[in-house]
Sequence to fold (376 residues):
Amino acid sequence: MTRIAAIIVAGGQGNRAGTDTPKQWQPLLGRRVIDWSIDVFSAHAAVSDIAVVAAADLGAPRPGQRFVRAEPGATRTQSVLSGLAALNLSDDSLVLIHDAARPGIDAGLISALIEALSTADAAAPALPVSDALKAQRAGTLSTVDRAGLYRVQTPQAFRFGQIRRALISAGADLVDDLAAIEAGGARVALIPGSARLTKITYPEDFDMLARLLAPSGMPRIGKGFDVHEFEPGDHVTLCGVPIPHSARLKGHSDADAGWHALTDAILGAVALGDIGDHFPPSDPRWKNADSALFLKHAQTLAEAKGYRIDSCDITVICEAPKVKPHREAMRARTADLLGLPLDAVSVKATTTEGLGFTGRREGIAAEAIAVLAPLR
Ligand code: MG
Fold:
């Protein structure tokens, strides 16, 4: 069976993007720019081998990622050759060569490029030029016929042996990899490109791509649940509000079951695990920690994934202390911390009619639901 590989090229320093660190390491909706491409290729069942051409600060593969790292060359073309050498596949294998600065790829595009190679030597996404094209030479402006002109994007797909030989014999740094074979009369299939595939070049490109790639449409809903046991003490903390009581809640942090449940609801809505993943009880940093820290962090993570908290609903379950007199303070404190209008935050309290561990006054339970809306 023909092997299908991918090379993700991230050797450049990206000075035009106006960032201190290269653009491929910059965050975009919660992931580094380069991770968008690595994640899509890693998840594609047809892609057997992945080489990422990047400096060592790329780091090890993250969960769900699979790749070998290849050392960047002095030019982009040398970087691609470095990736081809790291893959070392047979000549009839297929290889998709992609710029890390184009985070907007998807599985359908990869499949379409592979399919196009069944009848072509090479394939690439391309967009017809739609603006008027002008040439200015020696002070004279003239109109360029745009018929047949395309803006070509990546990934560009090739047969392994053909592109490797062509890049070696090209000897120079090329504008893209197609340039190495097109002059030789290769059959090139252009498939529809898209604005999502725009290359990050200038600082404003980050904002434009964040808008294009942000999740759209449906809100996300998450649910959280938490329990803490009583131990000797004089007050409990619920939703950030100290409530006098004949016991306190036992826990590594301040044991605020209400905010712990809400933190888990927010993390759940964006599928980012649970509070224990982000703040392990074994970590001494979180000893006696204010749970406001956990809740704000969950909000930051959700926003990095493109979601804002729209509303939440917390239910505290206990026989004592009486929560109702403190309910408005708990709502106000939560709304204030999250920057939400008061009427977007609900706090309710109930008992279990003397049944179960809350009925026996052994501890407090809390449930929460959070609704997150796509950031616009
Ligand atoms: Mg807890």
